[in-house]
Amino acid sequence: MSLDTGVKALAEAIGTDVKSLNMNIGDLSQLPFMDKSSLVGAITEFFAAFIENFTGLVEYIAPIDDDAGLGDTNVTWSADKSSREIGELYELIGDVESVLVAINGEP
After folding, report:
1. Residue 32: is it exposed, middle or buried by C-beta count within 10 angstroms (0-12/13-18/19+)?
2. What share of the chain is helix, strand, coil (3-state, %, to 5)?
3. What is the domain extent for residue 79?
4. How far apart, in Å, are the Cα atoms of 29 and each of 33, 36, 38?
5. Cα dihedral 20, 13, 41, 34 sign
6. Which whole-number Å values give the CA distances from 49 to 22, 36, 66, 97, in the listed order?
7. Residue 18, domain member (yes or no)
8. pLDDT at residue 57 in the model
9. Which helix (H) or strand (E) holds 58?
10. How remote is the C-alpha of 89 from its chain's centroid?
């Protein structure tokens, strides 16, 4: 293969790769962001908006309070407390089923 042929083949391969990359990236004008000049710009804009709004989101997350009662709607139990309560509920259901079986005489 001559140098001229090799350079042409290399240029065609690079052109094909660039075209493939551009097609996989898509039409930047369709991005729902102000910065449509590059994916990096759009992603940077997205994360800046996310961080800005994340502060507001944290205000809506209920604080953990394992001493909260059933009517307390502005707090939540921890995962451990929730797991214990669910376990106790399953035990209670099992006890109720045992009583019903004893009363009815059938499973």
Report:
1. exposed
2. 65, 0, 30
3. 62-107
4. 9, 6, 10
5. negative
6. 26, 15, 34, 53
7. no
8. 67
9. helix 39-58
10. 30
- Establish if 20 belongs to a structural domain: no
How many domains, in total, are found in the chain?
1
pLDDT, one tens digit per residue, over 5-15 is: 888 888 888 88
How high is the mean pLDDT of the chain? Answer: 82
In-domain check, residue 77: yes
**76 forms bridges with which residues in the sheet?**
64
pLDDT at 70 over 70: yes
Q: What is the DSSP letter of 76?
A: B
Q: What is the pLDDT of residue 29?
A: 83
Quick one: tokens of 30?
Answer: 């369709």
Please tell me the pTM assigned to this model: 0.37
What is the distance between the alpha carbons of residues 7 and 62, in angstroms, rounded to a whole number? 64
User: How is residue 60 written in tokens?
Assistant: 């809506």
